[in-house]
Amino acid sequence: MLMCRDLARIASDYIDGELGPMDRVSVKMHLMMCGHCRTFIGNLRASVDLINAHSSQQVDEEFVRRIDERVTESLNARNSGNGNSD
Amino acid sequence: MDTATHQSDEDILIQGLKSGNQSAFRKAVRLYTPGMLAVARFYLDHSAAEETVQDCWVTVIDAIQKFEGRSGLKTWLHRIVANRAKNHLRKAKREVSADFSETLDPELADRFAPNGRWATPPSLKINESAQALMENDALSDCLDQHLAALPETQRSALMLYEAHQHKSEDVCNILDVSASNLRVLLHRGRQKIFLMVETFQETGEC
């Protein structure tokens, strides 16, 4: 029988739909009976959503600006044909 | 998301890159750099990773001519970064080290009784949406700190899989890990964030 610790080990696989059909049924049965594990899965899912929401907004402006400069320099050098950038 | 529209936006961007259009490069750099940095950070320290990503963009100016669209632009860029980062690592005669042996975070593992049931179950249920949670600046800062403190391998796996929405197969290819090891990295990283959110909800502290 699947115990809470076993479920915690495969919780991400369950969330991502990566479990085989048998394991999936075992998890679902366990979740029907276990409120703690329902909370755990719910909170883990919320954490995943949080990582998504957070990370997708992150751009390091200073770093992006430095890349823009180098790319522009290389494009100009390429277009002028002889690398004369100044 | 409308795939058709998304595709044609990408096609327009690729055309712009192929013709050396500066604003197309600006747009692409802004759009794809965070993911490229996540790939590089899997292999390299922060400054070497930044250098690698910068060099990649310069390479892309010419390399884009050979881009045939067999994969998406994002995956193509991520592969270029991964290859360069791996070369860099090889030259430095170093290897990526990661622990794939245990799927449970030790702190979480301690919360189970010997019989496998919860000894210290999760106490609070998170009811707010991620967007609502992110409006809390203290929580957002705390998340920053905890993501930064994750082992590089876990963080890169999370970034590519979650934030940059790669399929598992692509992440495995880019990061050179097996499917089962990727599952370990993702689960370990997520558990850390789960524990952080839980502490924050309970105590209001990071």
Describe the structure.
The complex is a heterodimer of chains A (86) and B (206). Chain A is an all-alpha fold. Chain A has helices at residues 4-15, 21-33, 35-55, 61-80. In chain B, 69% of the residues lie in helices and 0% in strands. Chain B is globular, with a radius of gyration of 20 Å. Chains A and B meet through helix 1, helix 3 and helix 4 of A and helix 2, helix 3, helix 6, helix 7 and helix 8 of B.
Would you kindly provide a brief summary of this structure?
Chain A has 86 residues and is mainly α. Chain A is 77% helix and 0% strand.
The CATH homology group name of the largest domain in chain B: Winged helix-like DNA-binding domain superfamily/Winged helix DNA-binding domain
Count of domain modules of chain B: 2
CA-to-CA gap between the ends of chain B? 34 Å
Number of strands of chain A: 0
Q: What kind of assembly state do the chains in view correspond to?
A: heterodimer
Mean pLDDT of chain A: 89
Helix share, percent of chain A: over 70%
Domain count of chain A: 1
Give the overall form of chain B. Answer: globular
Question: What's the alpha carbon Rg of chain B, rounded to whole Å?
Answer: 20 Å
- Using the CA coordinates, give the radius of gyration of chain A: 25 Å
Q: Return the structural class of chain B.
A: mainly alpha
Give the percentage of residues in beta strands of chain A: under 5%
Main β-sheet of chain B, in a few words?
Answer: none
CATH fold-type name of the largest domain in chain B: Arc Repressor Mutant, subunit A
Identify the overall geometry of chain A: elongated
Q: What is the CATH-assigned architecture of the largest domain in chain B? A: Orthogonal Bundle
Secondary structure topology:
The complex is a heterodimer of chains A (86) and B (206).
Chain A: H1 4-15, H2 21-33, H3 35-55, H4 61-80
Helix pairs in contact in A: 1-3
Chain B: H1 3-18, H2 22-43, H3 46-63, H4 73-91, H5 106-109, H6 130-134, H7 137-149, H8 152-163, H9 168-175, H10 179-203
Helix pairs in contact in B: 1-2, 2-3, 2-4, 2-8, 3-4, 4-9, 7-10, 8-10
